[in-house]
Design goal:
The chain is an alpha+beta fold. It is 30% helix and 28% strand. The chain folds into 4 domains: 94 residues, Rossmann fold (3-Layer(aba) Sandwich), CATH 3.40.50; 56 residues, ATP-grasp fold, A domain (Dna Ligase, domain 1), CATH 3.30.1490; 124 residues, D-amino Acid Aminotransferase, Chain A, domain 1, CATH 3.30.470.20; 98 residues, Glycinamide Ribonucleotide Synthetase, Chain A, domain 4, CATH 3.90.600.
Amino acid sequence: MGINILIVGSGAREHALTWKALQSPLTDTVFCAPGNAATGAIAINTGLQATDVEGIVRFVKEREVGLTVLGPEVAVAAGLADRLSTAGRLVFGPTRAAGRIESSKVFAKSLMNRAGVPTPAYRVFDNPASAKDFVRGERRAFVVKADGLAKGKGTLVARDAEDTLECIDMLMLRRTVGAAADRIVVEEKIEGREVSLLALVDGERILPLAPACDYKRALDGDKGPNTGGMGGYSPVSFFGPEAVERAVASVLLPIVQGLRDEGTPYRGCLYAGLMVGPQDIQALEFNARFGDPEAQVVLPRLETDLITLLEATAGGDLAGLSASWTTRSSVGVVLASRGYPGTFTTGYPIEGLGTIERDVVVFHAGASADPSGYVTAGGRVLTLVALGDSMAEARDRAYRNVDRVRFQGMTYRRDLAQREVEAPALR
Ligand SMILES: Nc1ncnc2c1ncn2[C@@H]1O[C@H](COP(=O)(O)OP(=O)(O)O)[C@@H](O)[C@H]1O
Ligand SMILES: [Mg+2]
């Protein structure tokens, strides 16, 4: 008798978690809340929304779910982990209070300062006039961030002082992300290379996962608007084991210790968005969950049993555990609907999924099923992930298989992992 798992969420990240959970000998049945058409084909979709806390708690009791895994930030912010642990259920994902590390940029910045974590200098404002006075006095470009959750639309990187004023107006006067920008952070703009370091945290101990890079901008060359993520790769040549160790010591450990000291210990996946400069590693932000698309490129490289790791994390018992990774590389390409992250149309048949090669997996996000097959149903439709013995091989395989998939309006970035293949000297 294995354990019943409930995966909360409906994107490609949750499809990847479901796919990996099904490979574990410890797993009995995998349920999804709500899941998507592709998770429905390999597991059981419950029809429960990710924020339906009472519905999920009832389901977990009725169906004897032994481990609930929180995917999206909305489930964390809804207090799902709080309710499940009060009900005596094992849950992978932080409480709402610990989740403030993502849901409030002001909380995250001030905790980083208190804990001595290197992060760009910043000021907090709750009205646009004083924010703009500050920027006029400084005469430089800043990064302007909404305090609250804004689905990746809350951070604006300004070009110069004038543009910074415009960014403040967008968030605070035109209220492009609503009440999330009632307070803003105005932050020093820094340079460097970005990397996502995800770690399993059991309240106290930290088990870092393989680093990954994601691509947030819609278009090649990091042009165009920010998106939920257009793809990524792992491992990262400029962020090896020694860098991971440094980031754990200087960023993750102080934050985990700080949250513990404040009586809100963190359990789950803690995602640090890092900027790596020539001298130092600075933390830009934290997410209280697996990244999407990071999960899709990292999980296929994991050789250790996923459920063992998630159960130990949820149970506060990571002591003595480690994770091993294939030395193979992974590249994930998000196939999106033309117009995303703006407006787009859906309902187009997805063709070619049956012709995908070995060592390639396709995780679904915005796709639904109709009698003739899968059809598009969202902005980010699929993440196609290829493994290869080298990054070049993984990249070639990924794009070769992207060519086998078709739907009307299919768009994707063509430059994913290109810098890893073209400039190995930068190692
Ligand atoms: N201080 C900064 N300096 C330069 N770029 C930044 C800075 N803060 C954020 N960015 C850029 O903006 C992106 C989004 O910022 P982030 O803090 O991750 O917010 P969110 O993911 O919530 O939108 C980052 O991935 C990074 O590219
Ligand atoms: Mg981010």
